[in-house]
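Trying the structure run again after the queue cleared.
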Amino acid sequence: MTSFKRSLTLATALALCAPLAAPALAQDNTATTASDNADIVVTGRPQIGEFGVDLSARDLAAKPGNDFERYASGAWIDKTEIPADRPSTGSFANLREDVQQEVQNLITKAAPGTKYGALYTSYMDEKAIEKAGLTPLMKDIEVVRGIADKTEFARFMGSTYSKFGVTLIGGGVIPDTENPTMNILAIGSGGMGLPEKDYYFNSNFAKQRAAYQAYIERTMKAIGTPDPKTAAQTIMAFETYIAQLSWDVADKRDISKLNNPMSTAELIAYAPGLEWEAFFDGNNIAPQKRIIVSDNTAIKAISGLYASTPLETLKLWQEFHLADQAAGFLNTKMVDSRFAFTSSLSGVTQQRPRWKRAVDTVNGSLGEAVGEAYVAEFFPAIAKQRMDELVANLKLAMADRIKGNSWMGDATKAAALEKLSKMDVMVGYPDKWRDYSTLTISPDSLYANAVAANAFEAKYRMSFLGKPVDRKLWGMNPQTVNAYNGGLENKIVFPAGILQPPFFDAFADPAVNYGAIGVVIGHEISHGFDDQGRKIDSTGAVRDWWSPEDGERFNAEAKEFGKQYAAFEVVPGSNINPELTMGENIADFAGVTVALDAYHRSLGGKEAPVIDGLTGDQRFFLAYAQVWRSKAREDSLRNQVATDPHSPARYRTIAPLRNVDAWYEAFGVGPDSTMYIPPEKRVHIW
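Done. Tokens:
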């Protein structure tokens, strides 16, 4: 299925989230779990070490000021190997593996007739899948081959929102940037099979281009194309044209550039070449008074490209992507062929076990159904209670930071405090679970299940068009190991999956929980006030509520901060792009400073105890570094630098700390240290 872009949501997903225990818990290791009928007292010890940090992971030969990642996790780095089926390993990746195993256990123990059990069964039935071969796919391929003209082709592209296939123009339903209480349509350009436009031109990605073209050729041969090599060359050339016309990845995160409202009629006049009426009709979308046309100039240029491209080229391109998207639900030959390409992007050398791919499919299709069972089994009420307390404390600390901010004027501070006060916080799981009763799933046909699930999800998402925004809906499943800021909905969300060690442990030292989940909470809160959050007010409307003078002062600090990241060469020839990563970098920095303030506030004016020779602040920073510990393959890092607004984990560890005065004080870091930045040159944003 072609997933419609949601480029204006600013739903920033964090690749690591962290938790808190109240001070009393660290003292007596006792917590209360609330239920509907009674309070249950539970006791325990931290799951990691004596107080929540893995002291054996450190390299004590490394000086904290020379390489803090090495100091905090060097021994772990030395002894850890990346599993052959994974692009990286580390705290975040390992927790995802643990949660995946927990979800598999839930699925396989499910009662007979459970939909997610049936979907899992169909995925694991390799004998039936091999027997079916490409028969299910070829029925859809023949539909594309039978398309007679471009109007019909445009209609087919529109229909791929709810089925396998590709479109030049994706879209989705988002809160109106002007009236955020109502949902409207947003569209953005698409059509590329490689991750981003740089992959089509940059010499660093020559290997990936070759692997992609070889994969296209194998796929076209598999579906019976007469001259698969020429077809692959034609498809690759067409996508290269698309890439030339597409925006740079950094521009696609700038809400000022993306907020381009038009009516359907205005869009047709602005971007001629594509049969827009047929395209929207393919997805049953009536003419709209207001559409957010995100990367507008790219959409206009690509519409022109569509007009000049022969129909037969478009059909070959569509056939390939239909087969590509369906490949994971087909026989082993198709699965392995696709893996031979995707492994060039990630550097992995081994296909993930089938059961893991099956769990991913179940999570993607019946996520909240599984999530409801997951929460009941693995998410105690005490975790939700403690997280609510921690978030409240972090919001107080953020309010203090806003009030004491040196670059914000009084009017901007007032607007920021209003936005903070209205920021909704969602922890663990949604208030209301999704209804999957109309989704038909059979244990007998994986391909049919995938088609049905795609259509069900598309219908669900499009059902919100033209209706009031429901801010209680979640954009992640409860079992997801992640967190996000809801952007236009002014909310922050922390799923149950991430609220466990090493990110949250009710029995860990408070310094550890503040340094882990506390930093992640601060990170998500601060997205409401970063270089893009400043353009969304407390109601969710797109409006720059900073004064020009505030913006100039902020931009000056952000520019200096960006220069620090631009100097980091992650792998040879690939430096961090500060324009792409600016929002996440600032949020990491803010997360550290705000969480440390909140930790100090929690001490109630008392000195933190020294544990195993470590002060409270030292334990805080160690916890922060260890939740980001990671090892990644070079191809995976190249991909991340080119496509991901998050900096690689190593730089999320060391770069913010170089600007935190308390870190220097905690570890006695002086001018002779590699990471040292003179006080007058440190950036002070929050």
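Residues 1-42 have pLDDT under 50 and may be disordered. Worth checking whether this holds up in the mutant runs.
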